Design the sequence.
């Protein structure tokens, strides 16, 4: 079973600084370990930490509320996180370790390489993958024990395009990040843009992990005088790209891939002014899901910053997982838990709904309500999405 | 010949430990880590033959590792070729790439060779990363099959894969041992010690260097191919420079130019890095200085230090003591102003 | 002026020099004789601070200098012209010489004067002054090394086998030069294989054998010593 | 006549280190090259052994033009050399040094090494035997297990000889073989050279030790500023005015 | 045509940053034969220290940069004393691995102190200027001017001062240098000081046009190594020229050949140059 012997757990208390914090366990309670493997050191550490923070917040909350009950047995979570430096083979090794030493029924990982490396053996070794990636291949292969957390970006194409075309014009220059995600996004948006009668005048990508300066690329992207610039990637460098485009005299609008968040970009550009006319995802901070304000409040308290969607999604996912366990009546049967995710979604209390997730698809992907925002007159405005 | 017998003892011990391990400690995680470590060891042996015995420090080996891995991955996934055939082809492809690179790279020396090969390795990485249509780009390659059955033996379980890779490692060690203890090996060492002298002794240094380079690439490719079929997912990052630095670290900590070095170093560093996992974000805060200290206090690696220690003990009894072991690489430019 | 008392030198566990006692008086020209590996260079390197003695004291002008860094020792007035020359191969001959005057770098005039003196001593160096030192022939490099040492205007000059690899004509000149340097007031400690030529210009000498001093005496005494004649003069 | 140079010239930038030198090396003799420092002697050797390629002129070995051959090919023809600064594989033992010296006369390759073929076993033994033979010849068997870096200067010079001899040469080029060793030891090396000639090996050497040269050499060439200024027997050279002026000086000592 | 001028300027800007980083690296590499892979970490710390000075104490940009130069320079010295000095007789590969150890440590350290996220450095020189038909910000102009000034100063220091020559002398023969009375340990420290200072200048100048984060050193370090080899190891003019060559290759290559393959172009160019000139464009004499 996946129950750790409570007496083995050190009672290190709830300090959020220690990474694998064991919950305080009282008589008769049992512990369920949840695994996490992501980049906690190296260049991608900022990303890994944000994802982990979301999980941690949820776990702490659940434990502080006395855990959860299944058939009169009280359980608490023990989040065990391991660093994989963004390397797939390290993720695989970490997963083996988590299974061997902590018997984790679920392992979260926020990068597609690691997820794919785990998918090689997760059905055989029977654990559920909490996949934070919108890489389609992760769900396309029919892995029965994978849950994809973030929404797929398909839904953004239409509203983004129509907003940008209406407000700025038909000429698009694409300059997103060169990650797979960025490429997939571009491959989806470019044909769509053209279908709608637009013209794509430039299409290339920026590698934020290799380029020291973006001026060269932005100059090239702007040379055909586009009306709209499609950019994206981590918020901060994306913001730099936007800012430099303005410096180079670009006056059109930005269409911002969902990985970047307008509010985080604003922190870099200094004001929303240089982002005027942008269309992107609604920042979590401006979202009006039922559970958002409370989450933001709590997160700020812990980490002194406004959370992004990575943290938000992980937080929700953890809560859904708990509900699914309850619905399945088991903490250690990944199959049963997977089969009851939908029940978990339905059972999720409103105050936990940092995002509203309606359902889990056939392929194991969450379907989230999309919310879109634009910057108009130096302020964030919500754009209605008409399905 | 006495030392050979002693070596035998070590080797038998190592084989016994390797064979018995899964029974003594049936732990899936350890098994996984160890299998992976064996794969690294094979690559490190390849590197050792070149850097340790011939004196050419190649930083292109992560690239060769990736070529081997992608060779196997693409052949099996895209053409559906038989695993074993693909494995052989992958190694041959890597050797061929090694040959081409070596032909030019080996004209440079020392730092230039190191950086030249660093660039070659980086170009290989970039090509894998950019050539989406062939390699899948950053997305990587999924669905690489495990080794196909040989007659009744199948390689579906982690234990069977462990033994398979262990066997490859033993094969590698055997080949290395035989090369090093032969005229050919002496020739390599002669090149390491003084290339000019070797040439005036009638040794065709280019031919020999090229041979080592190709062979060394072959083992990097073999390791890469085994990696691909073990992890069964590969992305461009296996060709990135961090991998070559890892390999170098294993080699150096273990002892460059020694036969035991690759095993000792890889095992030690892998174990260390795994056991520091509890430090999470800050493990590099400990690992980094530890690595640096190891290098400072055991400059010849663990195996080298052991060797020195034995030498010292032996020489303490002799009338004319040995000089202190010097580093094998001498700064040519400093030691001799000019020939003649 | 220089006094080595019970000095031993070790490389690892190997004792290269054991308990030697040497003294050099002001203005003297003292020669160290001995076959290869006897420990002459080791002694020199220890005096000039490249090597630390494992035991014993070295006193120069009444101040102990053992264990001091080589740069300090140069500043105190001891300059070595090493056996393997230790030139700066890619710097020009002139730059090498100027670097030799490093300790006097604030006295530009003096450095220039020394430069002229060295050029006078070795005209070939003037001819090649803009060539990189590494492209000189063995003998030319040796002259440059001596010239560089002289640039520091040492009180005590240590010359480690200056005649190695030199043509007979040059060897002769070299010994003349050494004698001249000595007569001009520089104390010289010379290590040589070429015992005959060395003893002809020396005041006193020490004979090294496997790390110990086995014979010492004035030049005449040594020249008259049968054992020395046999081993080092070959007659 | 074993080797011959025709109008051999080597320039470094603007400097002509060897200028139009015609020279023949007589078989079975001791040929010496002398000259002031920087005369171009070592450069001349480097040209003959292929370490440098000439700027002009040709080198012949037994009538074959070997001007542009790389050093390893020339060595295989039977030309061996030592360097002015003794060059050994410092980290290997004396024996291992010399074993490698015979490598060029073997053909076993990686395959043989990995599969331990008959040829492998045969050639390992052959190299070892050869090494023992030349070590005996240079009288060094007592230090054969020492590290080459840790033996005395004189022993190193002998190892350098042994290395050259292990290549089964017909001619050896020795660049100042006795530099830096004392008179007693110098004599030992001189008799070793004579022994080599008795064995039928042609010797060609550079030396500054006139006493030895005059006694040893059958034929002497004098270089000065890269040019040949004299050639002949010891007596002829001793009495050649140009040589005395350029090189020997009055005393002709040491 | 416009775009050409613009891209030349962009290449110049990026080349300036590369050159400055490469200069620090080439000094240490050429003189002490240490391939200091931790140089990228010094660069990163240079940016963080300037940033912290500005944010925490509201110090003016230039003063903050000066502080950073000093601190990072001292850090370089510390690195030399603690790690490279004990390794001075070891072959370069040891330095390489030791340097990687330092790199890992410093990155983790930065993450501990400043966190893993991206930071922005505000500069007082954010204004957009238009010159000769191209667009730039004052900061970018400053990068170009600053780099040239630093290069000239460095060149004069090495060529015209005695202390500068001691650095060169030591590059060629360490023992020889100590035999003429040079304190080699001090020169080694000085070299590291210079190297760290150069890294800090480069980082402080370029941080405002990019971002500050623990991994930022990776952006430049590999390229800097390429540059110093391209230019000829240890060659100061080589490092400068190499930096600009790489800068132009990137900007013009991205414009006229292919953006996606511009890195490959740059590295291929190096491979080709080294194939033709195995010792780099300038050999050591160029110092
Ligand atoms: N760096 C070193 N490490 C180990 N042993 C050394 C070192 N330098 C010298 N030795 C040994 O110390 C002994 C004395 O050497 P040293 O160079 O002082 O002799 P020498 O009298 O100067 O000889 P030579 O005539 O060759 O210059 C020799 O056996 C030598 O091998
Ligand atoms: N690689 C080189 N580059 C430039 N000049 C060189 C080179 N090698 C030798 N020279 C020059 O060529 C000339 C001849 O040098 P060489 O070494 O042949 O002299 P040598 O006769 O052997 O002298 P010695 O007796 O001092 O060893 C010298 O002037 C030297 O400076
Ligand atoms: Mg010579
Ligand atoms: Mg000596």
Sequence:
């Amino acid at each position: 079973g996946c129950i750790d012997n409570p007496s083995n757990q050190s009672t290190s208390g709830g300090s959020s600084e220690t990474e694998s914090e064991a919950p305080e366990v009282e008589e008769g309670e049992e512990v369920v370990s949840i695994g996490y493997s992501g980049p906690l050191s190296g260049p991608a550490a900022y990303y890994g930490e944000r994802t982990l923070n979301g999980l941690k917040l949820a776990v702490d909350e659940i434990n502080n509320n006395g855990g959860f009950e299944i058939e009169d047995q009280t359980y608490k979570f023990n989040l065990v996180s391991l660093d994989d430096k963004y390397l797939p083979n390290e993720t695989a090794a970490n997963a083996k370790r988590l299974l061997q030493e902590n018997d984790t029924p679920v392992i979260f990982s926020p990068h597609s390489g690691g997820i794919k490396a785990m998918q090689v053996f997760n059905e055989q070794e029977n654990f559920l993958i909490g996949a934070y990636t919108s890489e389609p291949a992760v769900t396309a292969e029919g892995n029965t024990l994978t849950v994809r957390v973030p929404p797929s970006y398909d839904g953004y194409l239409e509203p983004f395009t129509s907003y940008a075309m209406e407000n700025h014009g038909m000429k698009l220059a694409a300059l997103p990040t060169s990650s797979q995600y960025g490429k997939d996004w571009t491959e989806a948006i470019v044909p769509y843009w053209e279908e709608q009668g637009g013209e794509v005048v430039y299409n290339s990508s920026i590698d934020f992990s290799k380029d020291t300066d973006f001026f060269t690329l932005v100059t090239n992207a702007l040379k055909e005088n586009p009306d709209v610039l499609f950019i994206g990637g981590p918020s901060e460098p994306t913001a730099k790209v936007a800012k430099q485009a303005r410096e180079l005299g670009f006056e059109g609008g930005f269409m911002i891939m969902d990985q970047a968040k307008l509010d985080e970009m604003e922190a870099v550009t200094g004001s929303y002014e240089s982002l005027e006319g942008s269309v992107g995802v609604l920042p979590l901070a401006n979202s009006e899901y039922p559970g958002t304000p409370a989450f933001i409040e709590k997160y700020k308290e812990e980490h002194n910053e406004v959370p992004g969607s990575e943290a938000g999604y992980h937080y929700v996912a953890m809560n859904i997982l708990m509900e699914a366990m309850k619905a399945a009546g088991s903490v250690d049967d990944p199959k049963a838990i997977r089969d009851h995710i939908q029940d978990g979604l339905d059972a999720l209390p409103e105050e936990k709904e940092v995002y509203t997730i309606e359902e889990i698809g056939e392929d194991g992907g969450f379907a989230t309500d999309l919310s879109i925002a634009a910057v108009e007159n130096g302020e964030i405005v919500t754009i209605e999405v008409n399905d | 010949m006495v030392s050979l017998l002693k070596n035998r003892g070590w080797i038998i011990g190592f084989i016994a430990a390797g064979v018995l391990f899964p029974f003594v400690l049936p732990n899936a995680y350890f098994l996984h880590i160890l299998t992976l470590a064996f794969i690294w060891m094979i690559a490190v042996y390849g590197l050792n033959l070149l850097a340790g015995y011939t004196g050419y420090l190649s930083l292109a080996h992560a690239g060769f590792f990736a070529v081997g891995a992608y060779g196997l991955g693409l052949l099996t996934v895209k053409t559906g070729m038989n695993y074993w055939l693909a494995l052989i082809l992958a190694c041959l492809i890597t050797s061929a790439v090694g040959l081409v690179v070596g032909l030019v790279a080996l004209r440079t020396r020392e730092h230039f060779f190191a950086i030249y090969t660093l660039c070659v390795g980086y170009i290989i990485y970039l090509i894998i990363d950019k050539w989406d249509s062939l390699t899948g780009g950053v997305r990587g390659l999924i669905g690489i099959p495990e080794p196909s059955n040989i007659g009744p033996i199948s390689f579906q379980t982690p234990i069977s894969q462990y033994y398979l890779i262990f066997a490859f490692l033993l094969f590698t060690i055997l080949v290395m041992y035989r090369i090093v203890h032969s005229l050919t090996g002496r020739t390599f060492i002669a090149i390491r010690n003084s290339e000019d002298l070797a040439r005036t002794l009638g040794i065709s240094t280019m031919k020999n260097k090229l041979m080592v380079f190709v062979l060394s690439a072959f083992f990097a490719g073999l390791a890469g191919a085994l990696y691909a079929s073990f992890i069964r997912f590969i992305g461009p990052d296996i060709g990135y420079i961090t991998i070559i630095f890892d390999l170098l670290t294993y080699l150096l900590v273990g002892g460059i130019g020694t036969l035991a070095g690759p095993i000792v170093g890889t095992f030690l560093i892998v174990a260390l890095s795994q056991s520091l996992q509890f430090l999470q974000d800050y493990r590099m805060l400990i690992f980094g200085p530890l690595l640096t200290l190891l290098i400072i206090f055991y400059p010849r690696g663990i195996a080298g230090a052991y060797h020195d220690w034995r030498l010292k003990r032996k020489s303490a009894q002799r009338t004319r003591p040995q000089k202190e072991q010097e580093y094998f690489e001498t700064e040519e430019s400093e030691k001799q102003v000019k020939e003649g | 002026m220089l006094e080595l008392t019970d000095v031993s030198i070790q490389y690892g566990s190997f004792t290269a020099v054991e308990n030697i006692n040497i003294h050099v008086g002001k203005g003297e020209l003292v020669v160290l004789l001995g076959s290869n590996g006897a420990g002459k260079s080791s002694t020199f390197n220890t005096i000039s601070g490249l090597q630390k003695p494992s035991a014993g004291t070295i006193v120069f002008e009444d101040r102990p200098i053992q264990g001091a860094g080589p740069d300090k020792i140069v500043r105190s007035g001891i300059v070595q012209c090493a056996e393997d020359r230790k030139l700066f191969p890619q710097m020009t001959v002139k730059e090498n010489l100027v670097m030799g005057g490093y300790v006097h770098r604030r006295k530009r005039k003096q450095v220039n004067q020394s430069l002229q003196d060295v050029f006078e001593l070795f005209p070939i160096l003037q001819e090649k002054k803009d060539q990189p030192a590494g492209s000189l022939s063995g003998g030319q490099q040796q002259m440059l090394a001596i010239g560089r040492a002289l640039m520091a205007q040492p009180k005590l000059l240590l010359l480690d086998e200056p005649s190695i690899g030199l043509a007979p004509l040059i060897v002769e000149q070299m010994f003349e030069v050494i004698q001249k340097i000595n007569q001009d007031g520089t104390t010289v400690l010379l290590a040589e294989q070429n015992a005959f030529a060395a003893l002809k210009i020396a005041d006193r000498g020490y004979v090294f054998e496997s790390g110990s001093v086995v014979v010492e005496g004035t030049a005449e005494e040594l020249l008259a010593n049968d054992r020395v004649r046999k081993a080092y003069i070959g007659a | 006549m074993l080797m011959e140079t025709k109008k051999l010239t080597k320039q470094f930038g603007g400097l002509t280190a060897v200028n139009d030198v015609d020279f023949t090396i007589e078989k079975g003799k001791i040929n010496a090259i002398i000259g002031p420092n920087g005369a171009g002697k070592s450069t001349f050797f480097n040209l003959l052994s292929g370490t440098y390629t000439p700027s002009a002129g040709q080198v012949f070995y037994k009538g074959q033009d070997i001007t542009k051959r790389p050093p390893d090919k020339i060595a295989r023809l039977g030309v061996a050399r030592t360097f002015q600064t003794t060059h050994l594989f410092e980290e290997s033992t004396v024996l291992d040094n010399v074993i490698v010296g015979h490598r060029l006369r073997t053909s076993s390759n990686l395959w043989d090494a990995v599969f331990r073929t008959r040829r492998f076993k045969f050639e390992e033994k052959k190299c070892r035997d050869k090494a023992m033979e030349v070590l005996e010849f240079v009288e060094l068997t007592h230090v054969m297990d020492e590290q080459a870096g840790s033996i005395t200067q004189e022993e190193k010079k002998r190892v350098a000889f042994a290395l050259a001899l292990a290549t089964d040469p017909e001619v050896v080029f020795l660049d100042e073989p006795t530099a830096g060793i004392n008179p007693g030891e110098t004599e030992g090396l001189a008799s070793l050279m004579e022994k080599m000639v008795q064995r039928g090996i042609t010797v060609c050497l550079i030396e500054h030790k006139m006493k030895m040269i005059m006694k040893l050499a059958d034929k002497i060439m004098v270089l000065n500023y890269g040019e040949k200024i004299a050639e002949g027997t010891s007596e002829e050279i001793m009495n050649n005015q140009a040589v005395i002026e350029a090189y020997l000086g009055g005393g002709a000592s040491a | 045509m416009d775009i050409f001028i613009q891209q030349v300027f962009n290449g110049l800007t990026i080349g300036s940053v590369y050159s400055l980083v490469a200069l620090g690296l080439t000094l240490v590499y050429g003189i002490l034969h240490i391939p200091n892979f931790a140089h990228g970490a010094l660069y990163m710390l240079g940016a963080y220290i300037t940033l912290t000075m500005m944010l925490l104490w509201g110090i003016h940009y230039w003063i903050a940069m000066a502080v950073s130069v000093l601190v990072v320079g001292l850090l370089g010295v510390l690195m030399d004393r603690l790690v490279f000095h004990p390794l001075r007789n070891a072959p370069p590969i040891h330095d390489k691995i030791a340097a990687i150890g330092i790199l890992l440590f410093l990155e983790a350290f930065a993450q501990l102190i400043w966190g893993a996220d991206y930071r922005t450095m505000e500069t007082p020189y954010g204004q957009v200027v238009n010159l000769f038909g191209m667009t730039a910000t004052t900061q970018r102009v400053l990068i170009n001017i600053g780099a040239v000034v630093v290069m000239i100063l460095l060149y004069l220091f090495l060529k015209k001062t005695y202390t500068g020559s001691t650095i060169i002398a030591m590059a060629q023969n360490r023992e020889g240098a100590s035999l003429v009375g040079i304190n080699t340990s001090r020169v080694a420290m000085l070299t590291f000081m210079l190297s760290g200072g150069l890294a800090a200048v480069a980082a402080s100048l370029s941080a405002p046009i990019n971002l500050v984060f623990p991994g930022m050193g990776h952006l430049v370090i590999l390229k800097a190594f390429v540059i110093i080899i391209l230019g000829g190891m240890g060659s100061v003019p080589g490092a400068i020229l190499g930096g600009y060559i790489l800068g132009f290759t990137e900007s013009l290559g991205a414009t006229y050949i292919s953006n996606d393959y511009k890195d490959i172009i740059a590295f291929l160019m190096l491979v080709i140059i080294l194939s033709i000139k195995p010792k780099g464009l300038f050999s050591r004499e160029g110092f």
Q: What stands out?
A: The longest helix of chain D spans residues 118-137. Chain D is about 40% helix and 25% strand. Residues 1-78+169-254 of chain D form a domain with the Rossmann fold fold (CATH 3.40.50.300). Chain D has a mean pLDDT of 85.
